[in-house]
Amino acid sequence: MSLPHAVLTSLLEKSTSGYDLARRFDKSIGYFWHATHQQIYRELARMEAAGWIASSAPPDAGKTRKREYRVLPAGRAELARWASEPSPPMDLRDDFMVKLRADAALGEVDLRGELARRIALHREKLAQYRAIEQRDFLHGGPLPRELQIQHMILKKGILYEQASIGWTQEMLGVLEEKASQP
């Protein structure tokens, strides 16, 4: 995924200032596409130069340099073009898997502490996702299409965290068994 398309999506959901966009990004798209605030600001400038978005000073800007961004028709067209292209499946690239292979080859690396830390991190993220699900999606009534899609994206995150916890616990069991053998 490219950052400009993530930014366009977020701006289509709500026109906003760069600062507010970066904060919202951290709490939504940022769960599955990380970008620093500086990257977002650079992208906003590029997208405005390309004619995909426009900015203006909001009424409450006063003497600040605050700008509010909105998507232009060219930006909508670009997002629609990009969204309709096929995407390759995600490649797994995890240096910890290489560390586990190193442990298998060396037989002397103790990664149990790291596995326990990762279980705690996955549990924390899972709790965050479940709190979001409870707050935003589990109100009993039917959801409009937009919210159904957002809920399904969240469910993928929930399933990922659950699977990661299960796999990491199983891997920890393998290392614990190895450690208890003479």
Tell me, what's the shape? elongated
Largest sheet: 3 strands, antiparallel
Beta strand %: 5-15%
Strand order of the largest sheet: 1-3-2
Helix proportion of residues, in percent? 55-70%
Characterization of this structure:
Helix content is 66%, strand content 5%. It is mainly α. It folds into 2 domains: 3-84, Orthogonal Bundle (Arc Repressor Mutant, subunit A), CATH 1.10.10.10; 95-180. A 3-stranded antiparallel sheet has the order 1-3-2.
Entry keywords:
single chain, 182 residues, mainly alpha, Arc Repressor Mutant, subunit A, 2 domains, three-stranded antiparallel β-sheet, 7 helices, elongated
Lay out the secondary structure.
Layout: H1 3-13, E1 16-17, H2 18-27, H3 37-50, E2 53-56, E3 68-71, H4 73-84, H5 95-106, H6 112-136, H7 145-180
Antiparallel strand pairs: 1-3, 2-3
Helix pairs in contact: 1-4, 2-3, 6-7
Give a nutshell description of this structure.
The chain is mainly α.
